[in-house]
Write a structure and sequence with these properties.
Two copies of one chain form a homodimer. The radius of gyration of chain A is 21 Å and the shape is globular. The first copy, chain A, is built from twelve helices and eleven strands. By secondary structure, the first copy, chain A, is of the alpha+beta class. In chain A, strands 1, 2, 3, 4, 5, 6 and 7 form a seven-stranded mixed sheet that branches. In chain A, helix 6 runs antiparallel to helix 7.
Chain lengths: 313, 313
Amino acid sequence: MRKHWWVNHKMTHAQEIAGGYMWSPKRESDGKRSQYYENMRRARPGDTVVSYAGGAIRAMGTVLDAAIDAAKPEEFGSSGLSWQDQGWLVAVAWNPIKPIRPKDFLQSVAPLLPAKYSPLQAATGDGNQKAYLSEISEELFELLASRAGATGPTFSEVAQIKGTDFREVLEDAEEQKIQSDLTLSDTERAQLAMARRGQGTFRKNLLTVESCCRLTNISNSSLLVASHIKPWRSCLTAQERLDGHNGLLLAPQVDFLFDRGLIGFDQRGDLLMSSVLTSEDFQALGLVRPARHIFNSKQLAYLAYHQQNVFQD
Amino acid sequence: MRKHWWVNHKMTHAQEIAGGYMWSPKRESDGKRSQYYENMRRARPGDTVVSYAGGAIRAMGTVLDAAIDAAKPEEFGSSGLSWQDQGWLVAVAWNPIKPIRPKDFLQSVAPLLPAKYSPLQAATGDGNQKAYLSEISEELFELLASRAGATGPTFSEVAQIKGTDFREVLEDAEEQKIQSDLTLSDTERAQLAMARRGQGTFRKNLLTVESCCRLTNISNSSLLVASHIKPWRSCLTAQERLDGHNGLLLAPQVDFLFDRGLIGFDQRGDLLMSSVLTSEDFQALGLVRPARHIFNSKQLAYLAYHQQNVFQD
């Protein structure tokens, strides 16, 4: 079921539209939960978004990928100073439109605004100060789309064509940091870069902890991918990136699902399956739900990170 | 069954040892087949190699990966002028050793040299001018290893730890060329870079030709990888890189096997399975041999390239 979203960009509108994404912190600056930020995790490929900034809707888009764990974009500069550095990034294919001002037809818009977590104040038509990403109804989306005369590519078409892979962008940036970090030796830099690909020291360390794929039981290591549990791009230290406990040896399709958060493991060792993944597709990938697994305490700590930050509920 | 190899590097010894590889052209400069070059395609991960240059064995190593299709390394400079540009690259984990000169114990070496395609002339102990990669017997290898007092990491251990991924290195180099090619527009450069990841225009073009995975029948495109048939790194033109006929939509584990040449398709549309891939592993990956497939003539041309240059017989 396709959902519709409304994003209030504020000062970082230009960066987000040009960059092809939305970004929010994970929590308010005082550490409180925010439904507007939690909504980032609810957006799914194929969902539609209207982009609001400076009193007008200026672009419409299609969500390309589920939210990924991403530090605050550097291009926000001082505009993002008050935000926490840890956040969610959602890739969006944006189409700029001729700006439309909801205030100009507030009588039509106001009754369709959601009662809770509304992007606009129904009475005045002004943006809601706290809002970032709000879910809106099909009716409101259709009203805005017809006003905008939005044509562009059909949404289902766009959603199949992956744009920028932000995982890759984030990892490239992280790798550049490593390569220019003079406190690291050449060997350490090489180890960390190889760990990104599941190679070298990380793979060697992982082989001392894991010996076969947790879902397919394949033990031929030339068919197995050394997959980080806490993603390489999200690790804070070299130690985490090379830690053999921060990995699983997975068959390629299992690595694919785990990396995208379509599967995970809970703290009892049971497989978690995302609502996004159908059991038909899971079976067609040649997989069956495994018995409860035993993980050591270090693995469980990394798996908790994965469940909270990568797994798509 | 682990095989043993002897490589006569000649002028490019230093580059190959430092770079962690062996490289040969595919054919003699006059276009003739050479068994020494064909042997590159027969080397398998875990095989051992002795490296001979300047009259001595100066390194021993373990093959890390099957041969990949690779242009002549730039670092060969003028040393490689007489060689064809198209060749095979085999990744090797080299361990330098204290040089040992086979001439010094030729009475022991000569009887163990292969009758055909020998690396040395049995009578004189001089290198064979035409030789590059020769298969040698277990006995000869053991003789040389004991002379060298080779210890180093155990070979099976090394073979599990992938070193440099030369596919990645070759693709990075290719991408740099594209990014600095001023005859291309910004859009073309972006399209070609995205095609490397199976994204953007290439994926869009592919979706007009293929609709589901040829082995698993999965049609949910968010689970499918847009895989080039003729590898992105081996394409000669932008047109080939973006051609929807030069691709298959494959489930992640099928993409993994196809990309490494562990499966392929022959010109009748039947699945080819490499001798390297056991049927147990194929099944454990959730795969069954599909019925004969129909491919169009453009796909068949690319599949022929794959069979000859990527597939591991």
